[in-house]
Design goal:
Elements lengths: L2 E3 L4 H9 L4 E3 L5 H10 L3 E4 L2 H5 L7 E3 L5 H12 L19 E2 L2 H5 L3 H6 L3 E3 L6 E3 L2 H14 L3
Parallel strand pairs: 1-2, 1-3, 3-4
Antiparallel strand pairs: 5-6, 6-7
The structure holds zinc ion.
The site of zinc ion (ZN) has 8 residues, from loops.
Length: about 150
């Protein structure tokens, strides 16, 4: 399942990427081009826009989310599409959607010493250069993903 989020769903897009789903985020396109892009890339369009979801071409490719808050949107996606929130956690950059790779020695060397000493696994984004590691923040995120997966 690949996703295309409308511009109002930036927060949800980051979480879908955190769960490992290939997720693009629209800037501000008109409805027609949103749909066209989603169809061309074989993505499910997620939107808060009722009119967009109602269009004819939408037919099964568009899912309307009614909730405003990310946790509620996450549960809504679980109900409506049975999204797997534990698909492949932390395998993508949450900022730009690129698949992460193992960090090189040089990249790890640039991480603050305090972190380097207590963490082992580092990944890097080939697009933006961010380095990720599994710390407390990571654990809290995983906890949330687990809850959504359980439908809680
Ligand atoms: Zn990145």
């Amino acid at each position: 399942m690949k996703f295309y989020c409308d511009a109002m769903l930036a927060g949800l897009a980051r979480w879908l990427r955190a769960a490992g789903h290939d997720t693009c985020l629209a800037s501000s396109e008109d409805d027609k081009s949103l749909l066209r892009t989603a169809l061309a890339q074989d993505r499910i369009l997620l939107t808060r826009d009722r009119d967009l979801a109602r269009r004819n071409e939408a037919n099964g490719r568009v899912v309307l989310l009614e909730s405003d808050r990310v946790p509620d949107q996450a549960r809504e996606l679980k109900r409506k599409l049975d999204v797997d929130w534990l698909h492949d956690p932390f395998s993508r950059c949450v900022v730009d959607n690129s698949p992460l790779r193992d960090a090189t020695g040089d990249e790890v060397a640039a991480v603050p010493k305090g972190v380097r000493e207590i963490r082992e696994h580092f990944t890097a984004c080939p697009a933006c250069g961010r380095i990720y590691w599994r710390g407390d923040h990571h654990r809290r995120m995983r906890e949330r993903l687990r809850n959504w997966q359980k439908g809680g």
